[in-house]
Amino acid sequence: MGGGHAHPLYHHGDSVLHSTAPEVKIVALVVFVLAVVATPRELFWPFAVYALIIVAMWRLARIPLAWVLPRMLIEAPFLVLAVLLPFAEGGERIRFAGVHLSVSGLYAAWGIVVKGTLGVAASLTVAATTTARELPLALSRLRVPGTVISMITLMIRYIDVLTTEANRMRMARISRGDSPRGLHQAGALAKGVGALFLRSYERGERVYLAMLSRGYDGRIPELAVGTGSPAAATARQWMVAALPVSTAVVVAVTSWALR
Predict the structure, then answer these.
(1) Each residue of 23-54: pLDDT tens digit?
(2) What is the distance between the alpha carbons of residues 112 and 80, in angstroms, rounded to a whole number?
């Protein structure tokens, strides 16, 4: 990757959160999401606290809401299930606006929506403050298997390449009279997806062989600080990151105690 390469979700900035070691942010994200998921869905106040923590991180990183909110629409397809649950679940029912809704279904829908939204928001916060170069290095420092790191690194590096290739194939079809929105073109679209898969697979093989020929041994090399590689996490960074994360853990434990 080039020195200045950044993925589409990265928000350029020079905040404290941007300069924090990436491994700290990844660990904080995992613990925070686990705390959110472990919180009983029947309570509402813990999720308000989690939301305040995320908003505080946005303010600290100087990430505007106008940048974050459109990117959170990525979870929209997963919310369809939440809309259906109050109608599909059984058990006790309540009447609202002339419609009988399942109480357990409402709680399940609430849990999916709020936990999914908070998880996406937290993930976007880390993605917005972590470059594509920092992610594999952080995973390497956290002792993640080299094969997994290689897969993630290549996925990040070539997602833009594959998107561009897909757009070129689409333009080629349109220039030959294709109608992408027509159902009669479903077969051609499926063939295009298959061709893109084969091209991606072959490209991956060529890239991997090129890496092996250059001495790749399954580990991501750590460059010297100042040449593009961020410094390893300091004790102070771990302590500062522990403040919002420990707050989330305390809230999750307290919610179970007060349930």
Answers:
(1) 999 999 999 999 999 999 888 999 999 999 99
(2) 10
